[in-house]
Description:
By secondary structure, this protein is of the alpha/beta class.
Amino acid sequence: MTQKHAYLPELPPLMVEAQVxxxxxxxxxxxxxxxxxxxxxxxxxxTCTMNARQAGxxxxxxxxxxxxxxxxxxxxxxxxxxxxxxxxxxxxxxxxSGSARGVLAAERVALNFLMHMAGIATHTAxxxxxxxxxxxxxxxxxxxxxxxxxxxxxxxxxxxxxSHRYGLDDAILIKDNHIAVAGGVTEALSAAQTxxxxxxxxEIEVDTLEQFAKVLAHGGADVVLLDNMGPEKLAEVVAxxxxxxxxxxxxxVDLDTVKAIAESGVNFISTSKITMxxxxxxxxxxxxxx
Length: 290
Protein backbone atom coordinates (compact mmCIF):
# COMPACT_ATOMS: atom_id res chain seq x y z
CA MET A 1 0.00 0.00 0.00
CA THR A 2 1.33 3.43 -0.94
CA GLN A 3 1.70 5.67 2.08
CA LYS A 4 0.00 9.05 1.78
CA HIS A 5 2.28 12.05 2.07
CA ALA A 6 1.09 15.56 2.89
CA TYR A 7 3.22 18.15 1.14
CA LEU A 8 3.92 21.37 2.98
CA PRO A 9 2.01 24.43 1.71
CA GLU A 10 3.81 27.00 -0.40
CA LEU A 11 2.99 30.50 -1.57
CA PRO A 12 4.16 31.72 -5.00
CA PRO A 13 7.13 34.09 -4.51
CA LEU A 14 5.52 36.52 -6.98
CA MET A 15 2.46 36.83 -4.73
CA VAL A 16 4.60 37.29 -1.62
CA GLU A 17 6.73 39.92 -3.31
CA ALA A 18 3.70 42.00 -4.30
CA GLN A 19 2.37 42.02 -0.72
CA VAL A 20 5.75 42.82 0.82
CA UNK A 21 6.50 45.51 -1.75
CA UNK A 22 3.21 47.24 -0.95
CA UNK A 23 3.98 47.12 2.78
CA UNK A 24 7.49 48.52 2.27
CA UNK A 25 6.20 51.32 0.07
CA UNK A 26 3.65 52.21 2.73
CA UNK A 27 6.36 52.33 5.40
CA UNK A 28 9.02 54.15 3.37
CA UNK A 29 6.62 56.87 2.29
CA UNK A 30 8.00 59.70 0.19
CA UNK A 31 11.52 60.00 1.56
CA UNK A 32 12.56 56.61 2.89
CA UNK A 33 13.93 55.90 6.37
CA UNK A 34 15.03 59.41 7.32
CA UNK A 35 16.04 58.30 10.84
CA UNK A 36 18.66 55.88 9.53
CA UNK A 37 19.75 58.37 6.87
CA UNK A 38 20.27 60.96 9.59
CA UNK A 39 22.17 58.77 12.04
CA UNK A 40 23.90 55.93 10.17
CA UNK A 41 26.56 56.22 7.50
CA UNK A 42 25.92 54.43 4.19
CA UNK A 43 29.07 52.35 4.65
CA UNK A 44 28.03 50.87 8.00
CA UNK A 45 27.03 47.19 8.15
CA UNK A 46 25.06 45.27 10.75
CA THR A 47 24.56 41.68 11.77
CA CYS A 48 21.49 40.59 13.65
CA THR A 49 19.53 37.62 14.87
CA MET A 50 15.77 37.21 14.63
CA ASN A 51 14.57 35.60 17.83
CA ALA A 52 11.30 34.11 19.12
CA ARG A 53 10.42 35.67 22.46
CA GLN A 54 7.60 33.13 22.91
CA ALA A 55 7.10 29.48 22.10
CA GLY A 56 4.97 28.92 19.02
CA UNK A 57 4.49 27.71 15.46
CA UNK A 58 6.38 29.58 12.74
CA UNK A 59 4.89 30.95 9.53
CA UNK A 60 5.97 33.80 7.26
CA UNK A 61 9.71 33.25 6.88
CA UNK A 62 9.47 33.88 3.13
CA UNK A 63 7.83 37.24 3.86
CA UNK A 64 10.65 38.25 6.18
CA UNK A 65 13.33 37.19 3.71
CA UNK A 66 11.57 39.05 0.89
CA UNK A 67 11.42 42.29 2.87
CA UNK A 68 15.19 42.38 3.34
CA UNK A 69 15.85 41.32 -0.26
CA UNK A 70 13.61 44.00 -1.74
CA UNK A 71 15.24 46.72 0.35
CA UNK A 72 18.76 45.60 -0.55
CA UNK A 73 19.54 42.45 -2.58
CA UNK A 74 23.01 42.29 -1.00
CA UNK A 75 21.59 41.68 2.49
CA UNK A 76 22.15 38.05 3.51
CA UNK A 77 19.21 36.29 5.13
CA UNK A 78 19.80 32.83 6.58
CA UNK A 79 16.64 31.09 7.79
CA UNK A 80 17.34 28.79 10.74
CA UNK A 81 13.86 27.24 10.88
CA UNK A 82 11.21 26.41 8.33
CA UNK A 83 7.58 27.47 8.27
CA UNK A 84 5.50 24.98 10.21
CA UNK A 85 8.24 24.39 12.78
CA UNK A 86 7.41 24.53 16.48
CA UNK A 87 9.94 26.59 18.45
CA UNK A 88 10.62 27.25 22.11
CA UNK A 89 10.95 30.69 23.63
CA UNK A 90 14.40 32.05 22.91
CA UNK A 91 14.88 30.13 19.66
CA UNK A 92 16.83 31.87 16.90
CA UNK A 93 14.85 32.02 13.67
CA UNK A 94 17.21 33.73 11.24
CA UNK A 95 20.53 35.52 10.87
CA UNK A 96 20.70 38.70 8.80
CA SER A 97 23.74 40.71 7.76
CA GLY A 98 24.39 43.59 5.43
CA SER A 99 23.84 47.32 5.07
CA ALA A 100 22.74 48.70 8.44
CA ARG A 101 20.43 51.18 6.75
CA GLY A 102 18.85 48.42 4.71
CA VAL A 103 18.42 46.08 7.65
CA LEU A 104 16.69 48.75 9.71
CA ALA A 105 14.48 49.84 6.83
CA ALA A 106 13.19 46.29 6.30
CA GLU A 107 13.03 45.22 9.95
CA ARG A 108 9.51 46.38 10.82
CA VAL A 109 7.79 45.05 7.74
CA ALA A 110 9.62 41.71 8.04
CA LEU A 111 8.64 41.35 11.70
CA ASN A 112 5.04 42.51 11.12
CA PHE A 113 4.40 39.76 8.61
CA LEU A 114 6.24 37.13 10.63
CA MET A 115 4.64 37.99 13.98
CA HIS A 116 1.14 38.11 12.50
CA MET A 117 1.44 34.90 10.50
CA ALA A 118 3.24 32.98 13.26
CA GLY A 119 0.53 34.14 15.66
CA ILE A 120 -2.15 32.64 13.42
CA ALA A 121 -0.18 29.41 12.99
CA THR A 122 0.34 29.17 16.75
CA HIS A 123 -3.33 29.80 17.56
CA THR A 124 -4.42 27.30 14.91
CA ALA A 125 -2.10 24.71 16.45
CA UNK A 126 -3.78 25.23 19.83
CA UNK A 127 -7.16 24.38 18.30
CA UNK A 128 -5.74 21.46 16.33
CA UNK A 129 -4.11 20.01 19.44
CA UNK A 130 -7.43 20.08 21.32
CA UNK A 131 -9.09 17.86 18.69
CA UNK A 132 -6.15 15.67 17.61
CA UNK A 133 -7.82 12.59 19.10
CA UNK A 134 -10.79 12.95 16.73
CA UNK A 135 -11.22 12.85 12.94
CA UNK A 136 -12.28 16.51 12.86
CA UNK A 137 -10.06 19.17 11.32
CA UNK A 138 -10.03 22.86 12.17
CA UNK A 139 -10.58 25.15 9.21
CA UNK A 140 -10.54 28.89 8.62
CA UNK A 141 -13.15 31.10 6.94
CA UNK A 142 -13.31 34.18 4.70
CA UNK A 143 -12.95 36.36 7.80
CA UNK A 144 -9.45 37.59 7.05
CA UNK A 145 -7.81 41.01 6.89
CA UNK A 146 -8.33 42.63 3.46
CA UNK A 147 -5.31 42.00 1.25
CA UNK A 148 -3.87 39.31 3.53
CA UNK A 149 -6.17 36.36 2.86
CA UNK A 150 -3.60 34.21 1.09
CA UNK A 151 -1.01 34.87 3.82
CA UNK A 152 -3.42 34.16 6.65
CA UNK A 153 -4.80 30.99 5.08
CA UNK A 154 -1.23 29.83 4.46
CA UNK A 155 -0.48 30.46 8.15
CA UNK A 156 -3.51 28.38 9.15
CA UNK A 157 -2.11 25.45 7.16
CA UNK A 158 1.30 25.94 8.83
CA UNK A 159 -0.55 25.56 12.13
CA UNK A 160 -2.09 22.26 11.16
CA UNK A 161 -5.46 23.58 10.03
CA UNK A 162 -7.15 23.48 6.66
CA SER A 163 -8.41 26.17 4.33
CA HIS A 164 -12.03 26.81 3.57
CA ARG A 165 -12.92 28.45 0.25
CA TYR A 166 -10.62 31.34 -0.68
CA GLY A 167 -13.32 33.66 -1.96
CA LEU A 168 -16.78 33.94 -3.40
CA ASP A 169 -15.67 32.43 -6.69
CA ASP A 170 -14.21 29.00 -5.87
CA ALA A 171 -17.12 27.22 -4.16
CA ILE A 172 -20.86 27.67 -3.66
CA LEU A 173 -21.81 28.24 -0.01
CA ILE A 174 -25.56 28.68 0.41
CA LYS A 175 -26.14 30.50 3.68
CA ASP A 176 -29.33 31.35 5.56
CA ASN A 177 -29.87 34.60 3.67
CA HIS A 178 -29.53 32.84 0.32
CA ILE A 179 -32.08 30.26 1.46
CA ALA A 180 -34.50 32.98 2.58
CA VAL A 181 -34.31 34.85 -0.73
CA ALA A 182 -34.36 31.69 -2.86
CA GLY A 183 -37.53 30.45 -1.14
CA GLY A 184 -36.22 27.50 0.84
CA VAL A 185 -33.60 24.78 1.14
CA THR A 186 -34.88 22.72 -1.79
CA GLU A 187 -35.18 25.72 -4.10
CA ALA A 188 -31.70 26.98 -3.28
CA LEU A 189 -30.10 23.56 -3.78
CA SER A 190 -31.89 22.97 -7.06
CA ALA A 191 -30.76 26.31 -8.43
CA ALA A 192 -27.17 25.73 -7.27
CA GLN A 193 -27.04 22.30 -8.91
CA THR A 194 -28.23 23.76 -12.20
CA UNK A 195 -25.64 26.55 -12.04
CA UNK A 196 -22.54 24.72 -10.76
CA UNK A 197 -19.89 23.26 -13.00
CA UNK A 198 -18.80 19.69 -12.38
CA UNK A 199 -15.71 20.79 -10.41
CA UNK A 200 -17.55 23.26 -8.16
CA UNK A 201 -18.48 22.03 -4.68
CA UNK A 202 -21.83 22.95 -3.13
CA GLU A 203 -22.17 23.59 0.60
CA ILE A 204 -25.37 24.61 2.34
CA GLU A 205 -25.91 25.99 5.84
CA VAL A 206 -28.62 24.64 8.12
CA ASP A 207 -29.48 25.34 11.73
CA THR A 208 -32.25 22.81 12.41
CA LEU A 209 -32.67 19.05 12.10
CA GLU A 210 -35.65 19.67 9.82
CA GLN A 211 -33.53 21.66 7.38
CA PHE A 212 -30.86 18.97 7.43
CA ALA A 213 -33.45 16.29 6.65
CA LYS A 214 -34.56 18.32 3.62
CA VAL A 215 -30.96 18.51 2.40
CA LEU A 216 -30.54 14.75 2.65
CA ALA A 217 -33.89 14.09 0.96
CA HIS A 218 -33.10 16.40 -1.95
CA GLY A 219 -29.40 15.56 -2.40
CA GLY A 220 -26.94 17.68 -4.30
CA ALA A 221 -24.93 19.07 -1.39
CA ASP A 222 -21.30 18.03 -1.00
CA VAL A 223 -20.95 19.63 2.44
CA VAL A 224 -23.49 20.76 5.03
CA LEU A 225 -22.58 23.62 7.37
CA LEU A 226 -24.18 23.07 10.78
CA ASP A 227 -24.62 26.51 12.26
CA ASN A 228 -24.66 27.08 16.01
CA MET A 229 -25.67 23.58 16.98
CA GLY A 230 -24.49 22.29 20.34
CA PRO A 231 -22.57 19.00 20.67
CA GLU A 232 -25.74 17.00 21.41
CA LYS A 233 -27.60 18.23 18.33
CA LEU A 234 -24.45 17.78 16.23
CA ALA A 235 -24.30 14.16 17.35
CA GLU A 236 -27.91 13.73 16.21
CA VAL A 237 -27.02 15.12 12.81
CA VAL A 238 -24.03 12.78 12.54
CA ALA A 239 -26.33 9.82 13.26
CA UNK A 240 -28.91 11.02 10.71
CA UNK A 241 -26.22 11.60 8.13
CA UNK A 242 -24.67 8.12 8.37
CA UNK A 243 -21.73 9.23 6.24
CA UNK A 244 -23.75 10.61 3.32
CA UNK A 245 -22.24 14.12 3.17
CA UNK A 246 -19.32 15.96 4.72
CA UNK A 247 -20.33 17.79 7.91
CA UNK A 248 -18.87 21.11 9.03
CA UNK A 249 -19.73 22.64 12.40
CA UNK A 250 -19.58 26.39 12.89
CA UNK A 251 -20.57 28.94 15.50
CA UNK A 252 -19.61 29.29 19.18
CA VAL A 253 -16.24 27.69 18.52
CA ASP A 254 -13.42 28.52 20.91
CA LEU A 255 -10.71 26.69 22.80
CA ASP A 256 -13.20 25.73 25.52
CA THR A 257 -15.87 24.31 23.20
CA VAL A 258 -13.92 22.85 20.27
CA LYS A 259 -13.16 19.48 21.93
CA ALA A 260 -16.82 18.63 22.56
CA ILE A 261 -17.78 19.80 19.07
CA ALA A 262 -15.13 17.55 17.51
CA GLU A 263 -16.19 14.57 19.61
CA SER A 264 -19.69 14.80 18.10
CA GLY A 265 -18.28 13.20 14.96
CA VAL A 266 -18.28 16.09 12.48
CA ASN A 267 -15.59 16.26 9.78
CA PHE A 268 -14.63 19.93 9.97
CA ILE A 269 -14.94 22.77 12.46
CA SER A 270 -14.75 26.26 11.01
CA THR A 271 -13.94 29.31 13.07
CA SER A 272 -12.80 32.87 12.47
CA LYS A 273 -11.02 32.81 15.83
CA ILE A 274 -7.85 31.37 14.28
CA THR A 275 -7.48 34.35 11.93
CA MET A 276 -9.38 37.28 13.44
CA UNK A 277 -8.71 36.38 17.07
CA UNK A 278 -5.11 35.20 16.96
CA UNK A 279 -2.61 37.20 19.03
CA UNK A 280 0.72 37.93 17.40
CA UNK A 281 3.75 35.84 18.32
CA UNK A 282 6.40 37.99 19.98
CA UNK A 283 9.46 38.00 17.71
CA UNK A 284 12.35 40.42 17.92
CA UNK A 285 15.51 41.33 16.09
CA UNK A 286 18.75 41.81 18.04
CA UNK A 287 21.24 43.88 16.10
CA UNK A 288 24.97 44.56 16.37
CA UNK A 289 27.17 46.83 14.31
CA UNK A 290 29.99 45.20 12.33
